[in-house]
Amino acid sequence: MSLSNLPNDDIDEFAVEQDHDEREEEISERAKRLHSAVRQAGGNGKVAARANMKLGTLSRYLAGRDMKASAMIALADACEVSLDWLAKGVEPTPALETIPLRTAAAVTQKNEDDDALPVKFFEVEPSAGVGVYPSEWVDSQDFLVSKKFIRQVLGVWSSKIFFVRVQGDSMTPTIRSGETILVDYAPQDIVDGLFMLSLHGRLIVKRLSIKDMHNISVISDNPRYNTFDVPMNKMCWASADPDAELRVVGKVVGRFEMGF
Prior knowledge:
Keywords: DNA-binding, Transcription, Transcription regulation
Order of helices and strands: HHHHHEHEEEHEEEEEEEE
Domain HTH cro/C1-type: 47-86
Region (Disordered): 1-26
Radius of gyration: 22 Å
Number of domains: 2
Organism: Gluconobacter thailandicus NBRC 3257
C-alpha cells in the first residue's frame, strides 16, 4: 500500500515512527564517535575529569543516552575533537588543526631570509569601523613566516595574509577565545568555510554555508549562538558593493598557538 492510500492517522503515525528511528540512529552513531574520541583521549576517567563530568554520566552517554548541548561541548573540548564531528560526524578542516608555530620555528622576528614572508599580526581584533582592509589597521607587529610552511603545510599560495587574535567563544571549540588565526584576504569565491567578516562595521569570525540559490547561512560553531541568513545580493568581498550588509574580509586558513 502506498502512503497516499493510507488514512491520515496512519500517515501521521508512520511519520512519527520514521522520525523516531532516524533519531535513534543519530544518537547511536554519536555514541560510537564518542567511544572513539574517549579512547583516543586516554579513557573514561581522564575524559570525565577534563569535562568536569561524573563518570557514570559519561558511561550513560557512551551507552547511547542522548547528550545535552552543554555536555556535548564539554566532551568535545575534553577529547580535543571538533564539535561538528562529535555531533554530526562532520570532519574538521585539516588546515584548522592547532599548530604551535613557535615550536615549529615557522615564525620569527629576526634572521631574514629569501624564504620568509612578512606577515602582520594583530594582537586583538581591530576596533569596529576601521574598515575591511587589513592594510588600514593599526597596532600590528610584523613577523616573518616560512613560505615553505605556508605553501606546503597550509596549502596557501597567497601573500595577502595576516594573523589576528580571536576574542569570544562563538566559534568554540573550532576556534577558542585567545587563539590566533591566519586569514587570506585575497579575493576569491565565497564557498562553504570559515571567514572573517564585517557585519555592519563589526568584525566577526563565522562559518559560511550556502543555504540555497539566494541565501548564505552565517553559523557559529558554538550551539549557544543562533545561525542567521543573509541574501547573497547583500554580501560582497571587502568593499565591492557599497550597499552590502555583510562584507568578507578574508578566509580563515589556519589556527595557531603563537607562543608570544
